[in-house]
Amino acid sequence: MEHFFAPAGGIKLHCVAEGAADAPLMLFIHGFPEFWYAWKSQLEEFGADHRAVAFDLRGHNLSDKPEGVAAYRHKPLLEDLRQLIEHLQADRTDKSCILVAHDWGGAIAWTFAVAFPQYVKKLVIINAPHTVPFARALASDPVQQEASHYMLLLRHAKAERVLEANNYERLLKMFSRTADGHCALSDEEIPLYREAWSQPGALTCALNLYRASPLYPPTPDDPGAAALKLDPATLTVRVPTLVIWGEADTALGTVLLDGLEEVVPDLRVKRIPEGSHWVIHEQPRQVNAAIRAFLREG
Length: 298
Fold this sequence. Notes:
Epox_hydrolase-like, hydrolase activity, 298 residues, Rossmann fold, hydrolase, AB_hydrolase_1, Alpha/beta hydrolase fold protein
């Protein structure tokens, strides 16, 4: 795989690519607490006929790490992505690409497709809720509120201390939220993740994604997402979209698919009943096959 750094948003983003430089661009955005490596199976698969590129989000692994919570609000994250696509497509008139995203990467990709549809030929979202149904569930659904309670810890000042303890034991347990209770990471992958989390400042930067977001469950002293006044019309995604959902996800319930077609009119949903939140690790062949079928459309 080809490693390089790309300028974006006044910083440098670490990228990893497979495939010919002149092939159609397919860009992958990881979630929490991951880094580019989450997409290794997809880079191998789609690098055969695309320029498949995964990158470390700002603050993660080898990418630059701006300080402060404000640096992780949605505007700088969207600008990173826009400038990265411009850089990768510098010699092309049509800048649009296939955008594939999971978890926090999905949150970024949903908003990006609304703000900059000219850069998105097709959108693939994996276990990442659209803002409108997520805010609704966080405000009113007790089951999703309880499932999202972990977000309150990740926003707390003690989060770094808790997650770093015992060589990142708590972070590794997050990957055990699977249907059978086993870790979604292999024994060979765990050291790679610990190394990424150990990069100076990386854990705080990753947690700042949660601290910067208004989407979190309510507490007795804070209404959380219930305070948001969202207009679905301004958050409608107009590009062709595939949502892949591992239904055994214990953090993000299938309630988050309810009413999704109202804000994503050109929508396909592929449910994987045995897949957890970490379905890209557990079921890479099913995920790749679903994406392949979607790309063949049209």
